[in-house]
Amino acid sequence: MTRLSCLLTFLAVLTGLAPGMASAMTSDRSVAKMVAFGGSCAKCELSGRKLAGARFMGADFTAAALVGSDLRGALFQGSVFDKADLTRADLSESQMMGASFAAATLTDADLRNAELNGANFSRADLSRADLRDIEGMGATFAAANLRGARLDKSELNGADFNRVNAQGANFDDAELTAANLSGGRFDGASFREADLDMANLRGAVFAGADLRRASLDRTNIGGVDLSKARGLTQSQLNDACGDSATKPPPGLFVRACGGRRITVQIAAPPAPPAPPAPPAPRRLVSVD
Fold it and tell me: Vertex 24, ends 8 and 78: CA angle to 5°?
C-alpha cells in the first residue's frame, strides 16, 4: 500500500464515480488508471509513473517526487507542487492554470505546448527545460533558473521574469508584450524577432544577447547595459526609451522615456572666480 493510497481524498474513475467526494484505497498498479487526484500527498514518491491525462484538482503534492514521470496532457488546476522534483518529467500539452510550482525542480523537463497561464514558477529550476510553444500569460518565473531553457515561439505576454537567470536561454519569436524582465540575467540569450513591446527591461543584463529584429516599441530599457548586445540597430532603439544609466552599443543612442534624446556630456569645468577688486588707495595724513 503506497503513501499515495492513504492520502488521496479525491478519486474519480472513468466508470462515472462521483468526483471530489470518494476516498479510496488503491493498489500500486492502479495509480496509472486514476483520472483525478485531490487532497494532500506531500512528499509522495511517484517517480517514473505513467500518469498521462491525470487530473490534479486542488491537490497538494508539495515536495513530491515525480522524476521522469509521464504527465502528458495532465491537468494541474489550482494544485500545489511547490518544491516537487519533476526532473526529466514529460509535461507536454499539460494545463497548469493557477497551479504553483514554486521552488520546484524541472531540470530537463518537457513542457512543450503546455498552458501555464497564471501559473507560479518562482524560484523554480527550469534549466535546460523545453518550453517551446507554451502559453504563459501572466505566469511568474521570478528568480527562477532558466539557464539554457528553450522558450522560442512561446506566448508569455505579461509574464514576470524579475531577477530570473536566463543565461543562454532561447526566446526567439516569443511574445513578451508587457512582460517584466527587470533585473534578469540574459547573457548570451537569443531574442531574435521576439516581441518585447512595452516590456520592462530595467536593470537587466544582456551581455552577448542576440536582439536581431526584436521589437522594442515603448520598451523600458532604463539602466540596461546593451553595449555588448548583438544585432541591435538604431531603428530598434528609436522605439524604446531609457535613461542616463542606459548603455547602448557604440555609435547608437537612446531617447529618454520623457521623449528627449539621451546624450552623455562631460560637464565643463566651472569658470574661475573673478579676481578680487584691488584695494582702494590709502591716503596718508600727516599732522604737524
Answer: 30
pLDDT tens digits, one per residue of 193-203? 999 999 999 99
Average pLDDT over residues 225-249: 96
Question: Count of alpha carbons within 13 Å of 108, Cβ hemisphere only?
Answer: 6
Query: What digits encode the pLDDT tens for the residues 144-156?
Result: 999 999 999 999 9
C-alpha closest to that of 129 among 151, 113, 114, 144? 151
Judge whether residue 284 has pLDDT over 50.
no
Which range among 27-41, 146-160, 260-274 shows the weakest confidence by mean pLDDT?
Answer: 260-274
How far, in Å, CA of 145 to CA of 127, rounded? 6
Task: Kindly state the cell numbers that stand for 226.
Answer: 546593451
Q: Which residues contact 111 (CB under 8 A, 6 or more apart)?
A: 91, 92, 94, 129, 130, 131, 134
The three-state DSSP-derived secondary structure of the chain is CCHHHHHEEEEECCCCCCCCCCCCCCCHHHHHHCCEEEEECCCCECCCCECCCCEECCCECCCCECCCCECCCCECCCCECCCCECCCCECCCCECCCCECCCCECCCCECCCCECCCCECCCCECCCCECCCCECCCCECCCCECCCCECCCCECCCCECCCCECCCCECCCCECCCCECCCCECCCCECCCCECCCCECCCCECCCCECCCCECCCCECCCCECCCCECCCHHHHHHCEECCCCECCCCCCEEECCCCEECCCCCCCCCCCCCCCCCCCCCCCCCC
One-letter identity of residue 238: N
Mean pLDDT on 252-257:
93
39 versus 177: the higher-pLDDT residue is: 177
Alpha carbons 282 and 66: distance in angstroms, whole number: 100
pTM of the model as a whole: 0.79
